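Notes, p. 3: input format for complexes.
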Amino acid sequence: MQTDVVVLAAGKGTRMYSDIPKVLHSLAGKPMLTHVLDTVASLDPQNIHLVTGFQSDLIKQHYVDSRHAQALHWVEQTEQLGTGHAVMQAAPSINDDAMVLVLYGDVPLIKPESLLSLVTKASESGIAVLTLNTPKPFGLGRIIRDANQQIIAIVEEKDASDEQREISEINTGIMAFKATMLKQWLGQLTTDNAQKEYYLTDAVAIAHASGVVVGNIQTSDADEVQGINDRLQLTELERSYQLRKARELAKSGVTIADTARLDIRGELHIGRDTCIDVNVIFEGKNRLGNRVTIGPNVVIANCEIGDDCHILANSHLENVVVQADCSVGPFARLRPGTVLKEGAKIGNFVEIKKSTIGLGSKVSHLSYVGDAELGALVNVGAGTITCNYDGVNKFKTTIKDGVFVGSNTALVAPVTVGTNATIGAGSVITSDVPDQDLAVARGKQKNISGWKRPAKIKTE
Ligand code: UD1
Ligand code: CA
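Output follows (460 residues plus uridine-diphosphate-N-acetylglucosamine):
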């Protein structure tokens, strides 16, 4: 059966105290709403109706160029008159023969399996709710069951009696319906409650009163249905999510120094016997091979790192390919477009941008290499700089196999240094160096014998 998904995201998010819409705040490096939309996409629904109101322009702007842009049907809820009212705004665009799944944009970690079970349940009787038993039910809608354990109503905290507030089973807010029945029940909602809102949850009592059995899926995973109302909840859900990811990795054959000090913001694939020290951050899509070691305080974003590499402390790598057996850092910065071929070594305080460092080549200390192509077995001495930018344009430096670049050399691009050439320390290289040659381009040393340094004259 076809499913129409309604994602509610019109709320103000007052308690975030933010200029950014709540659902665009990130969890694990990705907006909460994107987590929801990614999960929804995996269910392959017929339509996705996104109900926005507060700051809807900013939300639209965020998704206009995203992979979700095509699939989204935007529904405006100009006044936030409750969850029932929000669904009413989407109802006219929903086909009568569809199943309807209602989600919240601020419940980011909902799992596709739970949603599938919920929709299946709702397809039997017409309505199903996802609930959770929790020691902390405060502020949430309580599930009211009859003597036969059938769900007969959901009562909001503000409308609940003291006795009802003792109930520990809560409404996660996630529900599924048959479209025709939902539309009928929406028409019967009233604002006769403590908040003067149209509660979607009232559909439960209406369904029950008309003889419909209210289906139910219970989840035991509180994180999955955790809604975010303030930044403390966001931080705590982030930590819980990260801990879970780190534990999964540890169980899959990666050694992790401290599961509480690892952050994975995106997709990560790691081989066997790789070790990760403390305070490491992975962003975007990363792939690491076998027996890699990652030192403390390393940031790795959108990288591919081959087998047996060592990324030493305090290094930062972004959009980089590191082939097998390389060593990077400590304190190295590899910027986008960098490729390290097998066995290359990048040492401390080295910055590489959009350059290829050939097989077994070394840039060991205090260098900047940008827009350069280095061949195999090149040795770049300490303090070497490629002068790749004239203030307007960028130029390329080519260093062929076996070149030895002396310390403190400036290579003024465009320039090519031929195979096995040698450059004397302190040179400013402005023209090409032929194969095998020695290039020295610096002031000649002058020694003055008998030179006396000025001395201080003592005055009384
Ligand atoms: C709602 C449920 C409650 C449940 C809780 C779970 C109702 C009446 N209550 O309560 O039973 O335990 O969620 O978190 O449904 N929204 C709109 N338009 C509106 C109102 C809300 O789009 O007019 C959106 C919000 O942006 C949010 C979601 O709906 O994403 C839930 O709204 P919220 O105000 O947080 O609902 P609660 O009153 O907390
Ligand atoms: Ca809420």
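The mean pLDDT is 97.
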